[in-house]
Amino acid sequence: MAQHARAFSYSLGQLWRARAATLMTAAVIGIALALPTALYLVLEHAQQVSAGWKGGAQVTLLLKQEVSDEAARTLAIRLRAWPALTEVRAISRAEALEEFRRLSGFGAALDALDENPLPAVLVLQLTAGQEDAERLLAKVRALPEVELAEFDEQWLKRLHAIMAVIERAVQLLALLLAAAVLFIVGNTLRLAVQSRSDEIEVSKLIGASDAFIRRPFLYSGMWHGALGGVCAWVMVSLALWLLHGPVQRLAALYQSDFSLSGLGFTLTLWLVAAGAVLGLLGAWLSVGRHLANIEPA
Amino acid sequence: MILFNHVSKRHPGGFEALREVSFELARGEMAFLTGHSGAGKSTVLRLIALLERASFGQIVVNGQSLSGVTRRGLPKLRRSIGMVFQNHKLLHDRTVFDNVALPLVIAGLSRDDTARRVHAALDKVGLLSKERAYPVMLSGGEQQRVGIARAVVHKPPLLLADEPTGNLDPELSREVMALFQEFNQFGVSVLVATHDLELIRHLPHRTLTLKDGQLVADSATP
Ligand SMILES: Nc1ncnc2c1ncn2[C@@H]1O[C@H](COP(=O)(O)OP(=O)(O)O)[C@@H](O)[C@H]1O
Ligand SMILES: [Mg+2]
Question: CA-CA distance, A209 to B107, in Å (whole number)?
């Protein structure tokens, strides 16, 4: 225990004596940690924004076969009066057939039919920021003229798919950069071990165990990593602060109350802890190997 | 304390640094190991501290057969041996106090006990006033005495010295030898490798003589 305390304070002292080099290393680790953190924050905010977008979606109403174009237009006029809807577009049966013919390439097949098989369609544009879109959907489904009502969610689904891809990419990047932190710390400590080879040699001569010699280096790795975490926090916070103004203005233009949230206590703790753990691991992977090379001669 | 039983050391190149060396150093005994340069004196000491391993034969140190000492067991063996080197092997970025304290720090002694024993060791070699100094600020003789203080501070039962007077003038050399004799009087077994025959001629201790890796004379068995 006393030996741990000694190695602990000794490693701190070493860092302080080489503070310029320590800061450099911590800054590089900081960049490696800040990148995935920043991307993670971007994703978080994107999810937050897109969650509020459902209200701005479209609903497509397929009317029953027996509903005439005339009746469809009347229904459209009735629906326009609803405050939850900004626009209602009626597509007559003939227009629907024309569009289908143009888009599907089944023109000849349709010509073989005596009767137009397509119903009239109404496209509803929901008011942006509409909270209870699901309730509205239930309400239009209950209308006697309506056969089928669905959110036109294609674009939202695409957006979510894209975000899932980006999320995976961020995870991969985080993994790569974690490996980079291991290498940075490992290399830093390789140099530290080399520069103190005299001390290590003498310690071995005098009967220091490998664990005893390794300990201050492990602490040093942990300190470097934790400091790197702090650096990452500073960088991300600075970026958030710089983005704050422009984002507010953008949000105001969209009449949104969206704003950037900071890193928060938990995330900060995670960042520093992740740095410390990676630093410790990097030290552990590197130091043992390089210590073995230094034998008293 | 030390037993060599038909010990040979062959280096990877095929060179035989030691050939069939056998001797025994009793507990509490002091002896000199002499011979020309390259005779194998350092090799004997390095084998005892397991800085190298013997190619053939058996070595027993402090009742323990060295062939049974694993890598994990090495630190414990070395802590039972105090070692003094010709080039001192001091750490130049640490004070005299911190250099001497190193074996005690490794052994995990408390701060108070460490300070007390470091002071006692420095007092014995006459350098108590230099505890805050750095090794470069000391003369060669003083540096060697710091090395000796470090070798005995944790009270090992065996003290090994490899050419401890190699860089010292005759006057300082005699002082260093007197120190070793003093430790020996306290019961420490001492083995000193030196090629300075002039220095040890008048000292009343056993002398082992090596020549080309072979033990050619032992003053205890004429
Ligand atoms: N690692 C090695 N490889 C080959 N030869 C060595 C090695 N170490 C020592 N020797 C040789 O072993 C002989 C004995 O060396 P050493 O014990 O240092 O002699 P001394 O200390 O008596 O001067 C020398 O001839 C030296 O060159
Ligand atoms: Mg030698």
Answer: 10
